[in-house]
Amino acid sequence: MVLNTTSGPVEVPKGTSDRVINTSELLEPPAMQYLDEEPEIAFVIPANGWAADLKDRTVPLVCWVIMDDTTTYGVTLGRDGRVDVNMSVEERDDFKGYIKT
User: How many distinct structural domains can be found in the chain?
Assistant: First the structure.
């Protein structure tokens, strides 16, 4: 293993150093887990051909939202005709599931 020191690169055979060597692996998953952060939107993709099955009707989806923790949910038009990608159709009380149309 080559270590970058203030004196320049130094070759150190693996397992022969008494020093604790910190690498960037300490700051990357799976060693580091972000437990206090809410998932964030990573992607928004079209939901052509999909609808939300509600208790008394079917509503076409506008898009799918994919979060950075890999969870996915559908989005429909709001009552005001706007798309709010932070509002999952699954949060509705009358939501039953998704169907392919």
Answer: 1
